[in-house]
Amino acid sequence: MQNEPMQAVRAAVACEALTLENGLTVLVRPMPGYSGVHAIYGTRFGSIDLEFEVDGRRVSLPAGVAHFLEHKMFESEDGDAFAKFAKTGASANAYTSFDKTCYLFTATQQVDESLDILLSMVNEPYFTKETIQKEQGIIGQEIKMYDDSQDWRIMTGLFGCLYHNHPIRNDIAGTVESIAQITPEMLYDCCKGFYNPGNMVLAVAGNITTDQVLAACKRAKLPAKPAQVKRIQPQEPETVAKERLEFSMQLAKPCLGVGFKETPVEGAKAEIICDMITELVCGGMTDFYRSLYDQGLVNPGFGGEFLVLDGCCCFLFTGETDQPEKVRGLLLDEIERLRKEGVNEELFTLCKNQSYGEMLQDLENIEDSATALAGSFFRKRSLTEEIEALASVTRQEVDEALQTMLRLERSSTVIIWPKQEENA
Q1: Which residues are tagged catalytic?
Q2: Which InterPro entries match (predicted)?
Q3: pLDDT tens digit sequence for 40-61
Q4: Is residue 115 in some structural domain?
């Protein structure tokens, strides 16, 4: 990109970023003219954080604690946070991923009051054995619901095949058996270790000022001295745990997943290269994808994605197909062709421009803007750094990455077959 367009891009992704004395990162993108506000209060604590030390004391958790804690944060001694948000007219929600938990709301009125609710509900946890037991039943039903999702089963199947010890092998929500082990003491340990300002971000976008956000932080009286937490990840060999997994469930079509285990990468540029590789292998603009689709071998949802976490890095190519073995073979052939011939220059440029467009499109509404700001915190870099990293990526660097990545010997295959109806 030329300097002038790059300056315009930098201006588009600009936000006000501050770190408070207690360590909380505050990111604000005032958007005058918009009617609403979207706020995200998030912590670097997800389903893979099962072993840690807090203030020098070792804590071990069963699978599913981060997700369980997300649910419990909406409860307090003086009522349910959802009910409080309803009174301000705000729409609230939350989610847990492998490496983070986020609480959020969207509002067009009484924004200050909604910010107070958001900050206080996370800052003032309340757990009892009785409320935990009640939640175990609720989340148990949610776990069973995910068991019926083919997309989720293909992903968890691939993680289980690719990794020997890494906690990505566990379902984010855990199992009915694992969440039955949760105690109030465990949840308070998690709050002390991860729900402290130095490990958190408050990202806000929309019709609001930075002064409003800072005033809400001051009213919340957040902890002044964060606890010292140290994550502990198990050792993970380079080999895959299992090369193949096949099982059946209620499906209309077979579902294929091909995963590749990689050495963890670091930095915005390396991650952007990996993201681009998924598009260059079988993205919607490739001849390979169009050929598969035109032949009726895959559905429109077939594609790839890249995931990087602490101690984990992998590519996943998934989708429905009536001929999973054939599509797997064609995918491996296409990867080998790209490795030998290199990436097409025109396609590389199209994918790069598409990435620019997606980054800028994420800043056109308040929800995506706040999500992009929070995401930059979790990735430990700014949006401007990501844009500049994308601008510097070359086709030659992608070709070099393909020489060492997506290797057959570090791959696993999962196929889910439609369950055959039993004869009456």
Answers
A1: 70
A2: Metalloenz_LuxS/M16 (IPR011249), MPP/UQCRC_Complex (IPR050361), Pept_M16_N (IPR011765), Peptidase_M16_C (IPR007863)
A3: 999 999 999 999 998 889 999 9
A4: yes
